[in-house]
Design brief:
The complex is a heterodimer of chains A (about 110) and B (about 210). By secondary structure, chain A is an all-alpha fold. Chain A has 3 helices and no strands. Chain A has 2 domains: about 70 residues; about 35 residues. In chain A, helix 1 packs antiparallel against helix 2. By secondary structure, chain B is mainly alpha-helical. Chain B has one domain: Four Helix Bundle (Hemerythrin (Met), subunit A) (Up-down Bundle), CATH 1.20.120. Chain B has 6 helices and no strands. In chain B, helix 1 runs parallel beside helix 6 and helix 4 runs antiparallel to helix 5. The interface between A and B is large, with 52 and 54 residues.
Chain lengths: ~110, ~210
């Protein structure tokens, strides 16, 4: 980085922006952690409780798992950040094939 | 700038994990690998879902699964995912000591998860739920064991990274390595979300 001749004030300015961005990111991570803990507790409670019928509970916890995956991929693995277009294609096609695979195998063995 | 040169706060790039061509390639390649891993686990999940009620000579799923232990394992793994995210945040701030500390905590949590899983498997075997007790047993140990194998591999990976880079600062060479480990660790947690949902919780209600 020989050509790094930014004026000092500009450097300070951009590093401040970066700090603010990272602080926001940290808060996002904390919020999604709390959310995932709550989702986990709700899923366990739905199964432990007798108030909800089993088939409804199963559907419900699968939806909750889907929401948790969203948090992991988008927030913790930064899939929503810019520069993630190709990774998005990779993981999306993986998920598509995964869905077809599960459907086919369950259907075959049934 | 040389890739082995220690990064300073002045020359620190916005995304040190993607600042070199090698880093960019690793980043993309690793995401594609995770897409493939998704399919690998899908085959195991699909098989398990088809066979999960074929208990054979073994006990039924709802008899043996202990939800408190599974809940504890879930919280441990989820917390370890958070600590690895903190490590990545420290990486982006060029605070190498803090980053290594968070990765070390991640490693300890990963090891305690493994300990809990081994204890769980030993209990099950005592109760007659083994790999050969029925199709349910085979599918269960293949799926959950494969996930446990991924956790073990992750523990070895981060141990190697921490040992190899001890006393070194962040460079454009090792930043992608740390970053990719964190991605892997999140992925392992994603798989566990489906294991506790599909295997344990659904097994409890039949």
């Amino acid at each position: 980085m020989a050509s790094n001749e930014q004026p000092n004030s500009v450097h300070h300015h951009s590093s401040l922006q970066k700090k603010i961005k990272l602080k926001q990111e940290r808060r996002q991570h904390n919020v999604s952690f709390v959310m995932m803990i709550l989702l986990t507790i709700v899923a366990f409670a739905a199964i432990a409780s007798d108030a909800i019928s089993n088939s409804v509970a199963i559907l419900f916890i699968i939806v909750l798992a889907g929401v948790q995956v969203f948090f992991q991929l988008y927030i913790w693995m930064h899939l929503g950040h810019k520069g993630h277009e190709f990774p998005m294609w990779g993981i999306a096609s993986g998920l598509l094939i995964a869905l077809i695979t599960v459907g086919t195998l369950v259907g075959l063995i049934w | 700038m040389d890739v082995g040169e220690r990064l300073t706060d002045q020359n620190f790039p916005e995304s040190p994990e993607k600042a070199t061509l090698e880093g960019k390639n690793k980043f993309l390649g690793f995401w594609l690998f995770l897409g493939g891993e998704t399919v690998l686990f899908a085959t195991l999940f699909g098989t398990y879902l088809g066979l999960r009620n074929s208990f054979g000579k073994g006990p039924e799923a709802s008899e043996i699964f202990q939800l408190p232990m599974v809940f504890a394992a879930t919280i441990i793994l989820l917390t370890s995912s958070l600590t690895s995210v903190y490590a990545v945040l420290a990486l982006k701030e060029n605070r190498v000591k803090q980053m290594r500390r968070w990765f070390f905590i991640t490693l300890l949590l990963g090891l305690s998860f493994l300990g809990l899983e081994i204890y769980e498997f030993v209990e099950y075997v005592h109760e007659g739920h083994t790999f050969t007790s029925g199709a349910f047993g085979s599918a269960f140990y293949t799926l959950v064991g494969f996930h446990g194998g991924h956790v073990l591999f992750g523990c070895l990976w981060i141990t190697a990274l921490l040992v190899r880079n001890s006393g070194r600062g962040l460079t454009l060479y090792n930043a992608p390595k740390y970053y990719l480990f964190a991605l892997y660790w999140h992925f392992v947690d994603v798989v566990w979300v489906f294991i506790f949902t599909v295997v344990y919780l659904m097994g409890k209600v039949g």
